[in-house]
């Protein structure tokens, strides 16, 4: 981190330029031909059964009971609601790794988890550990994916996370009332919580937003089970993937120079990220979440009050955007 002091009209202003504080994409050691196979014995010692291995097939089925508290699942509970309980276990050849550093697995209770490999000295590991530990994890405003364990081995850390579903996939498009009452409320609450603890996510787009529901379905008609789940009030939203996140200390300003590998893809990417100048990552997050709201529902289907809010959040002028707390 490079701390620059600028003297303007006799007033000293401190701002922080994070040249390389956010992580570059993780890569396994090139000398390891099949990294997940290489680490399989280590993970097995921690009761982790990797996808499409004998351990996966030998692990008993997961519990059917859905967690009463999605962010604090008990050993006897499943992580999320499944439309068809007998389809909880992902079949052979169905899972596709989004990146080489991510793999599907089962915990000792037979529940599907996602294992993410990161560098042990990465900011992602530090941020995840901070968010997953008390008192932050115990706060109801913390809408980050449950992390079951953090396993260190040499220079590599494995983050064991509950597997939830993507709310932008499948046949279940959230209704306007559901969007305003659940999706919008929880995501803004979660973003305000992170920002309140000086954490900017830095990569907000639909792929990095999950909910505690997984569905495998090919029919177009409404699903009564899913509609019942929505009305139950048990739906929870969570942010995932902190590989581009930054933690900014209280004593410095919020200006960050991110570089080309910072930020989500268009159209969720705040325009100031690519200007080549220091920018406010918190304001960039607000822009991204506003674009996510527009993605989930066309503007014509959003009430006038929410249209005004989303328009402010996606302003091309960062200073004109509300903070996440103000928007919430």
Order of helices and strands: EEHEHEEEHEEEHEEEHEEHHH
Percent of residues in helical segments?
A: 25-40%
CATH class of the largest domain: Mainly Alpha
Number of strands: 14
CATH topology of the largest domain: Transferase(Phosphotransferase), domain 1
Tally of structural domains: 2
Q: Per the principal axes of the C-alpha atoms, what is the gross shape? A: globular
Identify the quaternary structure here: single chain
Q: What would CATH call the architecture of the largest domain?
A: Orthogonal Bundle
Total helices: the number is 8
Rg over CA atoms, rounded to whole Å, is 21 Å
- What would the average pLDDT be, to the nearest integer? 83
Largest sheet: 5 strands, antiparallel
Q: What is the first-to-last residue Cα distance?
A: 31 Å
List the strand order in the largest sheet.
Answer: 3-5-6-8-7
> Would you tell me the structural class of the helices and strands?
alpha+beta
CATH superfamily of the largest domain: Transferase(Phosphotransferase) domain 1
């Amino acid at each position: 981190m490079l701390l620059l002091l600028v003297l303007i009209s006799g007033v000293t202003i401190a701002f922080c330029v994070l040249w390389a504080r956010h992580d570059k994409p993780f890569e396994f050691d090139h000398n390891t031909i099949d990294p997940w196979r290489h680490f399989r014995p280590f993970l097995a010692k921690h009761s982790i059964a990797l996808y499409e291995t004998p351990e996966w097939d030998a692990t008993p089925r997961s519990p059917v009971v859905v967690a009463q508290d999605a962010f604090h699942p008990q050993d006897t509970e499943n992580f999320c609601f499944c439309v068809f309980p007998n389809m909880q276990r992902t079949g052979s050849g169905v899972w596709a790794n989004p990146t080489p550093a991510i793999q599907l697995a089962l915990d000792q209770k037979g529940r599907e988890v996602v294992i993410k490999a990161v560098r042990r000295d990465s900011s992602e590991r530090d941020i995840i550990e901070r968010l997953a530990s008390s008192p932050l994890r115990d706060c109801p405003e913390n809408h980050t994916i449950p992390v079951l364990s953090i396993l260190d081995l040499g220079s590599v850390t494995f983050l064991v996370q509950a597997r939830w579903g993507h709310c932008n996939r499948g046949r279940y498009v959230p209704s306007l009332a559901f969007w305003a009452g659940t999706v919008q409320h929880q995501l803004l609450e979660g973003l305000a919580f992170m920002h309140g603890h000086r954490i900017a996510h830095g990569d907000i787009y639909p792929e990095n937003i999950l909910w505690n529901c997984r569905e495998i379905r090919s029919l177009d008609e409404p699903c009564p089970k899913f509609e019942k789940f929505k009305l139950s009030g048990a739906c929870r939203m969570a942010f995932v993937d902190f590989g581009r996140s930054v933690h900014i200390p209280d004593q410095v300003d919020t200006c960050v120079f991110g570089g080309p590998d910072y930020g989500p893809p268009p159209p969720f990417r705040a325009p100031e990220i690519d200007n080549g100048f220091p920018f406010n990552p918190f304001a960039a997050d607000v822009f991204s979440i506003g674009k996510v709201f527009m993605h989930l529902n066309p503007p014509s289907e959003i009430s006038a009050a929410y249209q005004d809010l989303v328009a402010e959040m996606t302003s091309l002028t960062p200073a004109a955007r509300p903070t996440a707390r103000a928007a919430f």
